[in-house]
Design a protein that fits this description.
8-stranded mixed β-sheet; alpha/beta; Hypothetical Protein Yjia, Chain: A,domain 2; Rossmann fold; 5-stranded antiparallel β-sheet; 9 helices; 295 residues; 2 domains
């Protein structure tokens, strides 16, 4: 069984990569998703395209969920016999911790695909909050996708490539947009025995997860709420995303890397859901409901 870990910072394009990779794949694939927050959104996005997706409960696989993660892997292998197991940990989980959990489940050969948003890379590289954590992501990667190059420039892209090459000499590094890549994902390699991965600094963020009901929300007000979060009106929002029933139809709205994007969502939405991750958050459920006209 092939085992692939798709790593990357929040908003780097992990889910987009998985969806693109799965197209035209003639193999039994199961995707394990460890989303941040109590409401699984990425798992629904993957499942709506007809792929098998299993949501791990709220928490991080590198600490509180390690035992659940190991147990889930063993159960999936036994009950579903996939040819390929793809794992999408949250953007705040370190690859070394995920690999350690896989080793505990008896999986030594693992492929790590790392998505890097070239537009935020240098800020992350110099950050006290993310520095060592991001280095851990790079060091274990077999394939690095310099993603969103269409929004960047050649100088920044080259700088990203040079730094990543210094940290990791063996990884294949290639450019991509929307997580699309023509290369085959490398075969898994033995990363060596990993123990005490908890020594990698953990990113502690506050999380708000909210079910917002089945009544259509005002799209304009909802989008304005995301823009206000982007402007730090409610504290430092690192990532926000949701699936929403609106007066214009079903939408997926994302906030990442200082920008907001919205697109039509083709799948069914049982009820609107919002997840926000950040520090010093001043956002309350009342703020959210009042700003989306959901009374």
């Amino acid at each position: 069984m092939k085992t692939t870990v798709v790593a990357g910072m929040l908003g780097a394009g992990k889910t987009s990569f998985i969806l693109n990779y799965l197209k035209n794949r003639d193999e039994r694939v199961v995707v394990l998703v460890n989303d941040f927050g109590k409401l699984g959104i990425d798992g629904d996005i993957i499942s709506q395209d007809g792929y098998e997706s299993i949501e791990l409960p709220s928490g991080c696989v590198c600490c509180t969920l390690k035992f659940d993660f190991v147990t889930t892997i063993k159960a999936v292998v036994k009950e579903q016999s996939p040819e390929h197991l793809i794992i999408e940990p949250s953007g705040v989980a370190s690859p070394s911790a995920v690999i350690e959990a896989l080793q505990l489940a008896g999986k030594r050969e693992v492929t790590v695909v790392l998505l890097v948003d070239v537009n935020e890379f240098l800020d992350v590289y110099d950050s006290d909050m993310y520095g060592r954590f991001f280095e851990d992501q790079v060091r274990y990667a077999d394939l690095v996708l310099l993603n969103k190059v269409d929004l960047s420039d050649s100088k920044r892209i080259k700088r990203c490539r040079d730094i990543i090459s210094e940290w990791n000499h063996h990884a294949v590094i290639t450019e991509s947009t929307y997580g699309k890549v023509d290369l085959e994902v490398p075969h898994g390699s033995d990363k060596g025995l990993i123990e005490n991965s908890s020594g990698i600094p953990h990113i502690d963020c506050e999380t708000i997860a909210l079910n917002m009901g089945i009544e259509p929300l005002d799209y304009n007000n909802l989008y304005s709420l995301f823009e206000d979060m982007c402007r730090s009106r409610y504290g430092r929002v690192v990532r926000a995303k949701g699936l929403f029933i609106t007066d214009r139809g079903n939408y997926r709205i994302d906030l990442s890397n200082g920008g907001v994007s919205a697109e039509r969502y083709g799948g069914e939405i049982s009820e609107s859901r919002l997840v926000v991750l950040g520090t010093g958050l001043k956002l309350t459920s009342r703020d959210i409901f009042e700003n989306t006209n959901n009374y």
